[in-house]
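Handout, section B. The chain below has 328 residues.
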Amino acid sequence: MTALALLITLALSLLVAPLAARTQPVGKLPRIGVLGYGTPPGEPGRGVQRFRQGLRDLGYVEGQTIALEVRGAEDHPERYPDLAAALIRLPVDIIVAGDTAAALAAKHATSTIPIVIAVGDDPVRDGVVASLARPGGNITGLSIMVPELTGKRLELLTEAVPGLSRVALLLDAEYPARHTQLHDHEAAARRLGVQLLPLEARDPDAFGAAFRAATQGHAQALIMGLSPLFGRNRARLAELALTSRLPTMSGEAGYAQAGGLMNYGPNIPESWYRAATYVHKILQGAKPGDLPVEQPAKFELVINLKTAQALGLTLPPTVLILADEVIR
């Protein structure tokens, strides 16, 4: 009887094993939650696309060796806490946060699930990590050095427009980092001796009114704060700048190629691409708090000379020589 019972048990285990194999793989895949500012799940932005490419280049196959859960605030950052909580309930193994506000929402929601910030303004100042070298806790990722680059962009704009004394600053009215961006621009403006005219727009329909306010306020040029909203609408912003005859500077890669005068800074979609490396390291067993926060190694200045000519602006050779790319 003992031998018969053993044979029956073995036969049943062989029958059950294939069923278990069919029902478990999806649950066993590393599940990565992506929390972004815009991009609803069905319409991934450039950053999420580059993140997916980064995973593919590391050998991951979505749906086979890794699973992604993309959640977008659709330009409403007040949704971040609920979206972060929903990801944790799934649960996910890692959260990739698209900006500082998303990282803070995830940080407040969990102290155990690893968090990778893809595009951090100033992670130390903003309270995301303890230090760049040793972040500590459950968070690491990438910084795009917003305070330092804000001053450099404004400096380049003053060099490109001789005699510049009054500059309009366009901010996304809904973007959580707009207050620190305003502070950084005000500090840079004081240092450079220019007046700043802060303006806000919460959606593309408000862009026209913002540019009219800039010209009515006697601004001689306009600089844009960082926001996915502005990145997605860079061609429209470039068109309005040309119509308003305002030289403009942006930190969004691709702005000059879209017709704007200048853009300077790191390639933000590439920061998302690098975030995949952090996910890989954590999945391999690394602790987030031991992984240093990465800063950009390369910054690009792109100038659209055709736009300068259309504005009747002659750019000084000292500015042109700094350009990594000149569009003629």
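Note. The radius of gyration is 24 Å. Compare this with the example in section A.
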